[in-house]
Amino acid sequence: MIQRYLPGQPHQLPRHNQPMALYQPEHFLLAVKDGVATVSLNRPERKNPLSFDSYAELREFFRALAYAPDIHAVVITGTGGNFCSGGDVHEIIGPLTKLDMPGLLAFTRMTGDLVKAMRACPQPIIAAIDGVCAGAGAILAMASDLRYGTERSKTYFLFNKVGLAGCDMGACALLPRIIGQGRASELLFTGRGLGALEAERWGFYNRVCEADTMLADAQAMAAQLVAGPTFANGITKKMLQQEWNMGVDEAIEAEAQAQAICMATNDFHRAYHAFVAKQTPVFEGD
Description:
3-stranded mixed β-sheet, 9 strands, 2 domains, 2-enoyl-CoA Hydratase, Chain A, domain 1, 6-stranded mixed β-sheet, alpha/beta, 14% strand, 11 helices
């Protein structure tokens, strides 16, 4: 079983610097339009749970985005009125009870690698969340850069409900950064549901949308990001991730170096010449 989700699976991802629009995933839907990739978990009859293979394919997809010239922002969502119900009880939870410790560790490292891939890819990721967002689904939302929800969406960090610790896939590191230590502790200790309005008030959701416009709203934000200086956006994401491990002086120096790199880009020069000409700059990401 472990061989199913070791690195290198699944295959068929485009080679470096080839359009990701050529890729036809096996375990989720992918639509690429005008620089925005929409990833849709697509098992609506079971509220879009993850399997060993979908974990692995998502991990390899986000890893490959570092070399995808046609994608500058990502929206991840679910079909059928729900985001993701977490790991499939029959396809993941049951088999895990039969694995030995090396097998269990291979699995938990693989799931953590999905979060690492999401945080490392240069494209901003927007989670468009409707309905159930539970367990590993809550982690996918947490690992995204922005989160849009609806009034009927509800998020559950369910790990303690199945006898596990809340420290899953980086939750104890990332969730406190988003909503604060005390609030994260409450969710991870209790596994209680986080409703949409509370999630927005706590800062987990950036916006609560109407259910019938939520995906379009998330895609519109993604399009806005794509229209901006995408190379610089990637630097911003990288620094937001790295500076949590820096002191203030170290962070200021890292930002000085990062901004100097951005000042050498054509987009920076385009912005200056557009300002002089009293025009709106047209960024090209170089």
